[in-house]
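User: My instructor asked us to take a sequence, write out its structure as tokens, and then describe one feature of it. I'm not sure where to start. Here is the sequence I was given:
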Amino acid sequence: MNLPTHPHLETRHGDQVLWISLNHPAKMNCMGDDMLDVFCAIVDAIENDDSVSVIVVRGNGPCFSSGYDISKAGESNRPNYAEGSRRFFKRRYAFIDRVWNSPKPFIASVHGYCLAAASDLANTCDVTIASDDAVFGYPAVRWGGHTHRLTYPWHMPFKKAKELMLTGDRMSALEAERVGMVNKVVPRDKLEEETRAMAARMAMIPLSGLIVNKISMNYAYNVQGYQQAMQYSFQMAETNLWRKNDFFEKVQGEGLTRALDWRDGKFGDRKPD
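Assistant: Let's start with the prediction itself. The structure tokens for your sequence are:
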């Protein structure tokens, strides 16, 4: 199988399952724009390939992913409002749409940090299996950001989603399982084994059945307004997000670590990365 490549993505294929590993462990698998473009190209490439029935997304190293690359280098192409934030948003969140609209099921295999856009990715996958050390959350709200995909209220009770989105607090794997955001929590050393077993179980279903069932269930969300909510969140972000922002000025001027200390210090839960 010839798939698009990127140094921060690894792919492995066998027994009807394609494994896509986020592979930038030195930076907690943060996701850069060029990496996400290739991720989308991989999903496009396997859409009509009958040798793939199930896709697993995982992370190499200490965690699943800390979200977008918001380092000084990663944010160097961040536009101001006048430079076309609509195009920027659509590019950055195209990978979420690819997973949602793909007719094939995705499994998120999560350990360690699963934050910000990474939590949107895990939520959008059809099944999420987490190790007992996994941590979910959207800390970007602490600098005034928000999730442009609004996946939280679609995957957990509304009040809990509001709590997370109004505090930027994090949630343990067990709590995520309790509220329905995670299908299963397993010991860290059993995560790959359990993920492999789930993928193999899905792959035994005829591909036509997997496709029809995923599309049908996603349609039920769409008629409840899922896609309209996503579009509305884009419009809100275009209006409000790309204005002058103290957090990103600190990222550019003082570095990411100092900026995160400034953002999270007053909450008392800032931990070394």
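For the description part of your assignment, you could build on this observation: The first helix runs from residue 33 to 46. Try explaining in your own words what that tells you about the chain.
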